[in-house]
């Protein structure tokens, strides 16, 4: 896990642990190459939080579009964040939503970089 933190100090512990397990059989150079591409594709939990907060200004669902959940984004947009209840739930769960997206992105990236 140390090599992940050295190369990507911005990741949280749970994400670093996941990446470390995903890349345990890779060489240091392969890990560097992977993380360079992964850094460009991952989402930051703070961005998810900020875009979810925009939902209270009448433009709900932007965070769902950023997390590649297009259907939920459209639903939130048309229902004002499911009458703001969905937006409030997403504000509480923004870290989990972002971690789930980042894990899917890491898995897809690992499959592409074989």
Tell me what you see in this structure.
The protein has helices at 2-7, 13-22, 28-41, 45-53, 62-66, 70-78, 80-83, 85-92, 94-112. The protein has 114 residues and is mostly helical. It has one domain (2-112). The protein is elongated.
Characteristic key phrases:
114 residues; mainly alpha
Q: What are the SSEs and their pairings?
A:
Blueprint: H1 2-7, H2 13-22, H3 28-41, H4 45-53, H5 62-66, H6 70-78, H7 80-83, H8 85-92, H9 94-112
Helix pairs in contact: 2-9, 3-9, 4-8, 4-9
Gist?
The protein is mainly α. The protein has one domain. It has helices at 2-7, 13-22, 28-41, 45-53, 62-66, 70-78, 80-83, 85-92, 94-112.
* Arithmetic mean of pLDDT: 95
Question: Total domains, how many?
Answer: 1
Rg value: 16 Å
Count of runs of 4 or more consecutive helical residues: 9
Structural class: mainly alpha
Order of helices and strands: HHHHHHHHH
Number of strands: 0
- Specify the overall morphology: elongated
- Report low-confidence residues grouped into runs of 5 or more: none
Helical content, roughly? Answer: over 70%
Q: What does the oligomeric state look like here?
A: single chain
